[in-house]
Write a structure and sequence with these properties.
It is elongated, with a radius of gyration of 22 Å. α7 runs antiparallel to α8. The strands form three sheets. A six-stranded parallel beta sheet has the order 1-4-3-2-5-6, sandwiched between helices. A six-stranded antiparallel β-barrel has the order 9-10-13-12-11-14. β11 and β12 form a beta hairpin. The two termini are about 35 Å apart. It contains ten helices and 14 strands. The chain is about 35% helix and about 30% strand. The protein is α/β, with parallel strands linked by helices. The chain folds into two domains: about 160 residues, 3-Layer(aba) Sandwich (Rossmann fold), CATH 3.40.50.620; about 120 residues, Riboflavin kinase-like (Elongation Factor Tu (Ef-tu), domain 3, Beta Barrel). The longest helix has 20 residues.
Length: about 300
């Protein structure tokens, strides 16, 4: 997959295009991508995804701090690579970009810039200033625009329409199995390992403290998770704690700490990716450090049962 900025993108082949924010790239998005690639193969074209960064809501409503995203730009790029797209085109979303009317968006970007021959979109896709553009608008004007358009119906799992909002809600409730089912892949947290209080080391379970720089990244429900950790091409089993460590002290800041099994490297300043597999339990306050150590031992047993089943 080749990654491009919109301003510099040039394609001499037959452009089969889809566009959207694609937060999380869940199974509904994957259905669009699958169809996009299928058409590109049949017609001898190239699959092109146009996405926008920053997320439009971060630009249009900067005063709102409640938006939490399922994927950072780096995570999104990695997922598009995984799903086999030929070209990822990233448009910088700005207040000026937001002022493009639906007609200007189609003519200036979809036609003139991307040279689109066929446009594939999801059933609820909107575009242009104030989200005025729709599939119906495209269908009515496809002939004059000079490209074909195809709409993909909503992807459903057991009669539940998949959306990024429902995935966010599942993660907020610790329902990792549901979130991962809707995503079609494991939800991940990526960040840099920073120094912590080293309490885990004293308990016999040293942890890597993860710093996630993107303020908008969704952090799931506090508690203990069974996880896998990706580091320098290797995959390690581990258990994750998201919380404020109430046994140590009241009102501590929330941390993200992962204990990697069978791992003894010093990795401060390195980057890890944590794949959430299962929510084990809520974070608890114990009467002593001994009780906490005993519970961590049980958590490790539960984690191994989950990961090795």
């Amino acid at each position: 997959m080749k990654v491009h900025k919109l301003k510099s993108f040039r394609n001499e082949g037959k452009s089969i295009v889809t566009s959207g924010t694609f937060d999380g790239i869940h199974i509904g998005h994957q259905k669009i991508l699958s169809r996009l690639k299928e058409i590109a193969r049949k017609e001898g074209g190239e699959s092109i995804v146009l996405t926008f960064w920053p997320h439009p809501r971060l630009v249009l409503f900067p005063e709102q701090t409640d938006l939490k995203l399922l994927s950072t730009l780096e995570e999104k790029i990695a997922l598009f690579e995984r799903y086999g797209i030929d070209h990822l085109v990233i448009a910088e979303f700005s207040p000026e970009f937001a002022q493009l009317s639906s007609t200007d968006f189609i003519k200036k970007i979809i036609i003139n810039q991307l040279k689109t021959k066929k446009l594939v979109i999801g059933y609820d896709h909107r575009f242009g200033k104030n989200r005025e553009g729709s599939f119906e608008y495209l269908r009515q004007n496809a002939t004059s625009f000079g490209f074909e358009v195809e709409e993909i119906p909503p992807q459903e799992v057991k009669e539940v329409t998949v959306s990024s909002t429902k995935i966010r809600q599942a993660l907020a409730e610790g329902q990792v199995d549901i979130a991962n089912k809707y995503l079609g892949h494991d939800y991940s947290l990526s960040g840099k390992v920073v120094h912590g209080d080293k309490i885990g080391r004293k308990l016999g379970y040293p942890t890597a403290n993860l710093e996630i720089s993107e303020r908008f990244k969704l952090i799931p429900r506090t508690g203990i998770y069974a996880v896998e950790v990706l580091y320098q091409g290797g995959t390690y089993q581990g258990m994750l704690n998201i919380g404020n460590r109430p046994t140590l002290k009241e009102n501590l800041s929330t941390t993200i700490e992962v204990n990697l099994f069978d791992f003894d490297q010093e990795i401060y300043g390195e980057y890890l990716t944590i794949l959430l597999k299962k929510y084990l339990r809520e974070e608890l306050k114990f009467n002593s450090m001994e009780e906490l150590r005993d519970q961590i031992a049980r958590d490790k047993e539960d984690t191994l049962t989950v990961l090795n089943s």
